[in-house]
Specification:
SDR family oxidoreductase; seven-stranded parallel β-sheet; Rossmann fold; 9 helices; alpha/beta
Length: 265
C-alpha cells in the first residue's frame, strides 16, 4: 500500500496508459480521480473495482476547455481536503495534419502545441496552488520519446512533448521551495489499443528493429514508474525526464539494419 490515502488525479484516463495508472495507484491504496469527459462511462467502468474496495472516482475534465482543469482541481480539494499527486496524461495529434515541416500548416502546428502544453501548464499551475498548503506534492507529466528523438513526421506533437520535458524541469526548480516535485515519463511504443489498431503490422515490425529490447512496452510498465513518482520512495527525485522506450534512440543508427539481419561487421 505504497500510496495509502494519497489523493491522486489522472487526466485522460479511461484507457491505455492513463487507465493503467489509475488501476495501479488504486491498488496501492490511493484515492484516485479519473479526470475525463465521459464521467458516467467512467463510473460504470470502475464499478467492479470500487466494489472490490478500490477507491476510484470520476470527475469532469475536458482538455479543450481550460476552465475545467481549474474546476477539477478545486472540486477534488473541496471533497478530499487536499490533492497529493497530479498525473497529466492527455496528449493529442492528428497524423493527417501533423506531418513534416514542409507539409504541416502553421495554424495546425500551433493548435497542437497550444493544446498539449496547456494540458500540462494549467493543471500544474492550479495543482501547485493547491499543494502548497500540504508541504509536499508530486506532479507527473506523461510525455513521449517523440519529444526526445526527432521523427520524420508529427512536427507539432514532437515539439509539444519537447516543450513538456523542459517545462517539467522548470516546474521542478520553481516548485521545489514548496517541496513539490515534478517529473516526466517518456513512453516509447506502448501496446495500447490505439497503437495496435492504428499502426500496420509492417510498420510495427520495422519499428521494433530499432528497439534494443525488441518488443513493445506494456501500459503497466509506464504505470509502475508513475506509482514510484507518486510515492514517498521518490521524495528526493525531481526534474527527471525518464525514457521508458526499450532503449529506442540509444544505439548507432545502423543498429536496426544489423539487428534486422543485415550486413554483419
Amino acid at each position: 500500500m505504497r500510496l495509502k490515502n494519497k489523493v491522486i488525479a489522472v487526466t485522460a484516463s479511461t484507457r491505455g496508459i492513463g487507465w493503467a495508472i489509475v488501476q495501479a495507484c488504486a491498488k496501492e491504496g490511493a484515492i484516485v480521480y479519473m479526470a475525463v469527459r465521459r464521467v458516467e462511462d467512467a463510473r460504470r467502468q470502475v464499478k467492479e473495482l470500487n466494489e472490490q474496495g478500490r477507491i476510484i472516482k470520476a470527475i469532469y475534465c475536458d482538455a479543450y476547455d481550460h476552465q475545467t482543469y481549474k474546476d477539477m482541481i478545486e472540486t477534488i480539494v473541496e471533497e478530499e481536503g487536499r490533492l497529493d499527486v497530479l498525473v497529466n496524461n492527455f496528449g493529442t495529434s492528428d497524423p493527417r495534419k501533423d506531418k513534416d515541416i514542409e507539409q504541416t500548416d502553421f495554424h495546425d502546428f500551433i493548435s497542437t502545441i497550444d493544446t498539449n502544453l496547456a494540458s500540462v501548464y494549467i493543471p500544474c499551475q492550479e495543482a501547485i496552488r493547491a499543494m502548497k498548503g500540504n508541504g509536499c506534492g508530486s506532479l507527473i507529466n506523461i510525455s513521449s520519446i517523440g519529444g526526445v528523438v526527432p521523427d520524420i513526421s508529427q512536427v507539432a506533437y514532437g515539439t509539444s512533448k519537447a516543450g513538456i520535458n523542459y517545462l517539467t524541469k522548470l516546474i521542478a526548480v520553481q516548485a521545489a521551495k514548496y517541496n513539490i516535485r515534478c517529473n516526466a515519463i517518456c513512453p516509447g511504443m506502448i501496446a495500447t489499443d490505439a497503437v495496435k489498431d492504428n499502426l500496420s503490422d509492417e510498420f510495427k515490425t520495422f519499428f521494433l528493429k530499432h528497439i534494443p529490447l525488441n518488443r513493445m512496452g506494456n501500459p503497466d510498465e509506464i504505470a509502475a514508474l508513475a506509482v514510484y513518482f507518486a510515492s514517498d520512495e521518490s521524495a528526493y527525485t525531481t526534474g527527471q525526464v525518464v525514457e521508458v522506450a526499450g532503449g529506442f534512440g540509444i544505439p548507432t543508427p545502423v543498429f536496426g539494419d544489423l539487428a534486422g539481419g543485415g550486413t554483419k561487421r
